[in-house]
Amino acid sequence: MTFLSLRGYRWLLVFLILVTLILIGWQRVGMNLTLPILGPDAPQYNVYSVDDSSNGGSTLSFLETDKSVTTLVCELFPENQTYSFCEIAINVTQQGKGLDLSKFDSVTVELGFKNSPDAKVRVQMKNPNPIYSLPGDPTSEKFNIIEFNPTADGHRQTIPLSYFQVPEWWVSQYNVPIRYSQPEFTNVTVIEVSVGTNTPPGEYELWVKELTLTGKVLSYTQLLTVILAVWITLAVLSLLSLVVRMNSAFHQKQKQVQELNDLNRKLNTHSQRMELQAKTDALTGLLNRNGVAKRLLELKTSVQQNSEECSVIFCDIDFFKQVNDTYGHGLGDQVITQFATLLQTRTRTNDLVVRWGGEEFVLFCPQTSLNAASILAENLRQSIESAAWPEQLNLTASFGVSQMQKSEDIETFLNRADIALYRAKERGRNRVEINES
């Protein structure tokens, strides 16, 4: 974002305002999501009539269906008034699974009664859930119910799903926890349209022309959340860009002053830098062979005169040439740098890490026995093998360890560790070998 000019930010702001207004308007008039259940455009669900005759009641019912209207014809008898019911049932399961209607927010119906203007209609959606539903007990499936009077002329009505309720008798009968007592539409298996509760005895013809679930691809709240997130992101990026610009300008001024100071300082420190460069590896910042020479003489004196222990660990990256050949020397340098950092962070403060040459490193370990040095080498080997390397390389290293003897010179001491290193490579690499004598 730092490449945009102030004018560019203004145009971006205008663009986002326009997009925001367009999206809000589109959400209001578009982004519609529909699922026909009954009607000319509905899928061929299994539609059938259900009444209390299966429970020993006397209600008689059947369906009359043409291309546009499904009509339930039923007769409720007075002696069974308390338990009488008849309904249109729509099995909406697909491959044994119910419909997830949670993304819809309302149901649109076009229905009514012939010659029964005061009768009520009940729409209910059954939603089984293994948390509270019992196998073989259809009544344990959650009932999501709405009961209402159709319009006198049978015009379409849109009812929010939030108006549906779960009956108290069902919650009480199955001892459903309060967190599961609210309407649920995640696994609707059957949608039923029936005459209302306590409908008087008589003949009824309930016709249904349309039953459609409706909603939005994105609800208004979801859309505002997305828009707000975009605006907040833009604000943060703009603020960061401003900070970067100001910081860049500040550093540019500082740089000009610093360059003048550096010019004078360089003249005075040129010889010192040349000496340091001769002793330091330019890529990793570690000491090189020249830089460690004086320290080696000190370690030899400590071993011979003070009987202190001192060990050395030779470390070589396995198959490093393949890394350079496959990915180039740029990535190879990255691996060397990360490798050096890993050695420094996994060793002790008094250990001395040296880049010996190429992919070979040497660790000098004062006051350290051969056994302790081999343990340190094994820990380093495991850390290298488990570390994350560029290009997801599976990098390993081989190690050779020796301990300085009083009677030997530095060259012999180092050669013994080098021999152990080559032995580790001959025996399959990615291992630690020691040279005790």
Notes on the structure:
With 437 residues, the protein is an alpha+beta fold. It has three domains: 1-31 and 218-244; 34-216, Galactose-binding lectin (Jelly Rolls); 279-435, 2-Layer Sandwich (Alpha-Beta Plaits). It has helices at residues 6-29, 168-173, 220-279, 289-306, 320-327, 329-345, 370-386, 410-426, and strands at 32-38, 46-51, 60-65, 70-76, 86-91, 104-113, 121-127, 142-148, 157-160, 190-195, 202-216, 310-317, 352-357, 360-366, 397-403, 432-435. The strands form three sheets. Strands 1, 3, 4, 6, 9 and 11 form a six-stranded antiparallel beta sheet that branches. Strands 2-5-10-7-8 form a five-stranded antiparallel beta sheet, with no helix packed on it. α8 (410-426) links the parallel β15 and β16. α1 (6-29) packs antiparallel against α3. The chain is elongated.
Any key phrases for this structure?
alpha+beta, 5-stranded antiparallel sheet, 16 strands, 6-stranded antiparallel sheet, 38% helix, elongated, Alpha-Beta Plaits
Summarize it.
The protein is of the alpha+beta class and 437 residues long. It is built from 8 helices and 16 strands. It is 38% helix and 26% strand.
Tell me the CATH topology of the largest domain. Jelly Rolls
Proportion of strand residues: 25-35%
Structural class, from helix and strand content? alpha+beta
Broad shape: elongated
Using the CA coordinates, give the radius of gyration: 41 Å
Query: Number of helical runs?
Result: 8
- For the record, the CATH class of the largest domain is Mainly Beta
What is the CA-CA span between the terminal residues? 63 Å
